[in-house]
Design brief:
The protein is α+β, with helices and mostly antiparallel strands. About 40% of the residues lie in helices and about 15% in strands.
Length: about 80
């Protein structure tokens, strides 16, 4: 059990709390960041799960992407972008 963001080994309590709250394995440093994102932007839990699933699959994506006029929960970067 490791944090999907920093690969830090998670104890049972951190793992259980993160899975119960977000449905993904995050450490005590990264879980509050995602919880704050949910609170501020009303980001769905499923968008966070999708983001980490895409990241694990090697797909370059962004969470809560702002295009200048609106915010979207998830954005997959194309090869021509950036």
């Amino acid at each position: 059990m490791n944090c999907l963001e920093c690969n830090k080994t998670l104890g049972y309590t951190d793992h259980r709390q993160s899975m119960d709250t977000l449905g993904v394995e995050l450490c005590d440093e990264h879980m509050p960041r995602m919880s704050k994102l949910i609170e501020i932007n009303s980001t769905p839990r499923e968008a966070i799960q999708l983001y980490y699933g895409l990241k694990e699959a090697g797909v370059s994506s962004m969470l809560e992407w702002w295009d200048g006029s609106k915010s979207i929960d998830s954005h997959i970067k194309s090869k021509t972008q950036y």
